[in-house]
Write a structure and sequence with these properties.
It is a single chain. The chain has about 200 residues and is α/β, with parallel strands linked by helices. Helix content is about 40%, strand content about 15%. It has 7 helices and 6 strands; from the N terminus they run E-H-E-H-H-E-E-H-H-E-H-E-H. The chain has a 6-stranded parallel sheet with strand order 3-2-1-4-5-6, sandwiched between helices. Helix 1 packs across helix 7, helix 4 packs across helix 5 and helix 4 crosses helix 6. The radius of gyration is 16 Å and the shape is globular.
């Protein structure tokens, strides 16, 4: 298995577990092996936002790792992957990653991703942001992470919440060189604008 065929998918306790679910679905559609870490807090959010159990979410992944299993394959840089996405990413997870003081497999795998200079994409879900949040994001960006909050792309004229989610997920997957069909692309599916402004 080459590193281009594996993606580590973290789901933290922030609101928006649907983003992680759709990343798993996209990996399956793209033929990319997914390695899932569902945090303990994510299980709570899952119960609040969906009718799915943690076991049902784990079944969507090729490999599901326990949050406390810091000896898992993905905790080592010698295990090749395309990188890691945390969707959604809580402020707590983001802060742990920024300090390098990790307490779970979720943040350990993210730390490994950074040290190996692989793409780490954080779909941070929080608003409004105070100065401490912003400084933490700057620190992560300086370390090589990509901060990619899931924001609606209204130019894509989404007809449903599902289309809005898929556009955000697809654009995040672009950062790994993965092109997912539901994404509407400017200059191809949409636009460009014509006429004078």
């Amino acid at each position: 298995m080459s590193k281009a065929e594996r993606l580590v998918v973290g789901v933290s306790g922030a609101s928006g577990v649907v983003y992680g679910l759709r990343v798993l679905d996209a990996c399956r559609e793209l033929g990319v092996e997914s390695h899932l870490i569902l945090s303990k807090a994510a299980a709570l959010t899952l119960a609040q936002e969906t009718a799915l159990s943690p076991a049902e979410v784990s079944a969507r992944a090729d490999v599901a790792h326990k949050a406390g299993d810091v000896g898992a394959s993905i905790s080592s840089g010698s295990f090749p992957t395309l990188g890691m996405i945390i969707a959604p990413c809580s402020v707590r997870s983001m802060s742990e990653i920024a300090t390098g003081v990790t307490s779970s497999l979720l943040t350990r795998a993210a730390d490994v991703t950074l040290k190996e200079r692989r793409p780490l994409v954080l779909m941070v879900r929080e608003t409004p942001l105070h100065l401490g949040h912003l400084r933490t994001m700057v620190r992560l960006a300086e370390m090589g992470a990509v901060i990619a909050p899931p924001l609606p792309a209204f130019y894509a004229r989404p007809a449903s919440l599902e289309e809005m989610v898929d556009q955000s997920v697809g654009r995040a997957l672009d950062l790994f060189g993965l092109s997912w069909k539901p994404v509407k692309r400017w200059g191809q599916d949409l636009g460009p604008l014509t006429g004078e402004v």
